[in-house]
Amino acid sequence: MSTDFNGTWNIISNDNFESYMQALDIDFATRKVANLLSPQKIIEQKGDSFIIKTISTFRNYEVQFTVGEEFEENTKGLDNRKCQSLVTWDNNKLVCVQKGEKKDRGWTHWIEGDKLYLELNCENQVCKQVYKKVPPA
Ligand code: 1AG
């Protein structure tokens, strides 16, 4: 039985996001705005099928995938690149490799208690985000 990521999660910390965005060539003005956001993750999981929505007042991003099935990801509204992405389980961690123009790009999600962790990697930068579960209504 794999980890259950379902739910709504609010960001509580965001370390090195600026450098991660620089590694993705995000322009100055966009970075200034993005740095002020408090995004929310809404995750819908059925077994190995996922929809992950990143919601903010500025832009939203949604990705859908099945663990173990490579897909073409278009990072529309973010850095607007195309990647060949593959998500796999590493024990209870969800690990995504985003093959494309940028080296060593990907992310890892895992859960500890009522916290959702996200590490975003690009080139030599790592952004570490922590989200707290919003209790179901
Ligand atoms: C992601 O999460 C990325 C989600 O795939 C967004 C994270 C970083 C944004 C990347 C580049 C910044 C580019 C433009 C900034 C503009 C808006 C930012 C809106 C998002 C707020 C952080 C991994 C996983 C599944 O959860 O998607």
From TrEMBL:
PROSITE patterns: FABP. InterPro entries: Calycin, Fatty_acid-bd, ILBP, Lipocln_cytosolic_FA-bd_dom. Gene3D superfamilies: 2.40.128.20. SUPFAM superfamilies: Lipocalins. The keyword Transport applies. Pfam families: Lipocalin. Keywords: Transport. GO terms for molecular function: lipid binding. Residues 7-24 form the Cytosolic fatty-acid binding proteins domain. Belongs to the calycin superfamily. Fatty-acid binding protein (FABP) family. This is Cytosolic fatty-acid binding proteins domain-containing protein. It comes from Chiloscyllium punctatum (Brownbanded bambooshark).
